[in-house]
């Protein structure tokens, strides 16, 4: 048993809270101290919640008064800055929204508060969730706790780094093309993209509405299930929200940890994803994880998904098209910043100057791409074709899931790359999403869990499991089963092997 409350999983911390062994104030203070000590260097947070201790004290009071609280009440939570909050600014990593205060909470935030979670702050991200490295944040990048010269993934690098660096046991992320799963892969954490419609998008600043999905970022599969249980379920404010009633994902994870699920489980591997596209250590960690599952009775089956390779191309037409429309609302009138270029400026001139100053290069690139793809003469050739590819990829999934229970892929082609390596080559950055994008195009759930360290660089690698739409619970079973096997083999969690981080001096050391 550790005395350092920041090293506990959310489920262990919750057990201590409900046993009365620690208070939420103590747990929250421990995480705020950790943030103060390490975040000046890491920059996982854009904003730290000044009222976190008050929220924690309120939970402690309610618990002391005998109130029936939810299973993870009192546990601290980091929130990706794409999710709007009434008590903290929401910028989505963009200058155009600097200081923006929302009049309402995102549904996932409201549900987290109602479950007694303690919002610690807002986490850094690529501007408007466009990117795979967090280098596109208008507020500067986040460092990867495993190697501070490398990217923490993106767009949700802040949430993943916060969890990996023990600044928060739980975080919320959003995944439009991999922004929960790829950061999990490069930081040795767990990231889950739910079935499209399974978690409300209300109050998640829209990137591409037909692809966006909010989900948990944690250190264990069980913790992801616990947070998913809090945020899942129908929301009348989101027109695409499913009305399903979901099983407990935490229970699915607990059930999976027994390993029974692996006996006879059919795990599909995609024929058209050749080893050669992957860094050697990523490919071998993937093969080892499959072998570990096979040794417990899982059957590895080759499946064909011939249209997967067109996923990146289709996505980078559909996403910019939807983004160009979603970002039109940042018009200098209703939200955020306003730049007046000269005293007699027209509305159009103010709008142009504001969008020029407020948006970064990647956002502008995608707005241009998207408006072009949607323009009258090109709509059918680009957007229309991309939508057809999307349907073909959905067909690939349907055919594959007729043969297997889950599909497995490496979560991304490489381990964490160095800052600056891909920033000037957008196509290289986009190709990083090759294994994560198909799930968003098809709306199916996907989870990334740590599978080991790459031999050549000692950096974390993740394995991704995909399941049919609505079968999120299956991913928790399978993920927890493999996690249990691997943690046993490693003799402890992978994150125990991450290097110690430099600590700022003094109680308020690195806080901003
Ligand atoms: N890297 C992808 C992109 O740049 C994923 C973004 C996301 O999931 N928000 O679009």
From TrEMBL:
GO MF term list: ATP binding; glutaminyl-tRNA synthase (glutamine-hydrolyzing) activity; transferase activity
Enzyme class, first EC level, given as a word: ligase
Family statement drawn from the similarity comment of this UniProt entry: Belongs to the amidase family. GatA subfamily.
Pfam families on file: Amidase
Catalytic activity: L-glutamyl-tRNA(Gln) + L-glutamine + ATP + H2O = L-glutaminyl-tRNA(Gln) + L-glutamate + ADP + phosphate + H(+)
PROSITE patterns in UniProt: AMIDASES
Superkingdom: Bacteria
Subunit structure: Heterotrimer of A, B and C subunits.
Active-site residues, Swiss-Prot/TrEMBL: 80, 155, 179
Source species taxonomy: Bacteria, Bacillati, Actinomycetota, Actinomycetes, Micrococcales
PANTHER family for the chain: GLUTAMYL-TRNA(GLN) AMIDOTRANSFERASE SUBUNIT A, TRANSAMIDASE
EC number: 6.3.5.7
Cross-referenced InterPro entries: Amidase, Amidase_CS, Amidase_dom, AS_sf, GatA
Role noted for this protein: Allows the formation of correctly charged Gln-tRNA(Gln) through the transamidation of misacylated Glu-tRNA(Gln) in organisms which lack glutaminyl-tRNA synthetase. The reaction takes place in the presence of glutamine and ATP through an activated gamma-phospho-Glu-tRNA(Gln).
Keyword Lipid biosynthesis listed: no
One GO CC annotation: glutamyl-tRNA(Gln) amidotransferase complex
Keywords: ATP-binding, Ligase, Nucleotide-binding, Protein biosynthesis, Transferase
GO biological process: translation
The protein's name in its UniProt record: Glutamyl-tRNA(Gln) amidotransferase subunit A
Domain Amidase stretches: 26-475
């Amino acid at each position: 048993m550790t005395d350092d409350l920041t090293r506990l999983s959310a489920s262990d911390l919750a057990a201590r809270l409900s046993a009365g062994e620690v208070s939420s104030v103590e747990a929250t203070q421990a995480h705020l101290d950790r943030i103060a000590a390490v975040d000046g260097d890491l920059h996982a947070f854009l904003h730290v919640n000044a009222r976190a201790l008050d929220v924690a004290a309120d939970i402690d009071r309610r618990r002391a008064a005998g109130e029936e609280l939810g299973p993870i009440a009192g546990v601290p939570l980091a929130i990706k800055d794409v999710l709007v909050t009434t008590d903290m600014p929401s910028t989505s990593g963009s200058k155009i929204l600097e200081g923006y205060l929302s009049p309402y909470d995102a549904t996932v935030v409201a549900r987290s508060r109602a479950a007694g979670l303690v919002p610690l702050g807002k986490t850094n991200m690529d501007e408007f969730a466009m990117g795979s490295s967090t280098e596109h944040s208008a507020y500067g990048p986040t460092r990867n706790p495993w190697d501070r010269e490398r990217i923490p993934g993106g767009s949700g690098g802040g949430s993943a780094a916060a969890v990996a660096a023990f600044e928060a046991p739980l975080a919320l992320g959003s995944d439009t093309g991999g922004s929960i799963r790829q950061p999990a892969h490069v930081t040795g954490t767990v990231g889950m993209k739910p079935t499209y419609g399974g978690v409300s998008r209300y109050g998640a600043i829209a990137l591409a509405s037909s692809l966006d999905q909010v989900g948990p970022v944690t250190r264990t599969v069980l913790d992801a299930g616990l947070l998913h249980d809090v945020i899942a379920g129908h929301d009348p404010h989101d027109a695409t929200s499913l009305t399903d009633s979901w099983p407990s994902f935490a229970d699915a994870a607990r059930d999976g940890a027994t390993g029974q699920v692996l006996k006879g489980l059919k795990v599909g591997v995609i024929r058209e994803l050749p080893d050669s596209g992957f860094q050697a250590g990523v490919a071998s960690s993937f093969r080892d994880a499959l072998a570990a599952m096979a040794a417990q009775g899982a059957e590895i089956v080759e499946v064909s998904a011939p249209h997967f390779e067109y996923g990146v191309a289709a996505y980078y037409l559909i996403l910019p098209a939807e983004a160009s429309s979603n970002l039109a609302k940042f018009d200098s009138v209703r939200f955020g910043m306003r730049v007046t270029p000269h005293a007699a400026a027209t509305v159009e001139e103010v709008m142009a100057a504001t969008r020029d100053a407020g948006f970064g290069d990647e956002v502008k690139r995608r707005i241009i791409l998207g408006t072009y793809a949607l323009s009258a003469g090109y709509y059918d050739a680009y957007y229309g074709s991309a939508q057809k590819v999307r349907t073909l990829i959905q067909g690939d999934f349907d055919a594959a899931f007729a043969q297997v229970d889950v599909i497995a892929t490496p979560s991304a082609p490489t381990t964490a790359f160095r800052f600056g390596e891909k920033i000037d080559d957008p196509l290289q950055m986009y190709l990083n999403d090759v294994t994560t994008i198909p799930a968003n195009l098809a709306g199916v759930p996907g989870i990334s869990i740590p599978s080991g360290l790459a031999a050549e660089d000692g950096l974390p690698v993740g394995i991704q499991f995909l399941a049919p739409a609505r079968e999120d619970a299956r991913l928790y079973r399978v993920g927890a089963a493999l996690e249990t096997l691997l943690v046993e083999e490693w003799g402890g969690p992978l994150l125990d092997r991450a290097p110690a981080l430099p600590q700022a001096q003094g109680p308020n050391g690195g806080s901003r």
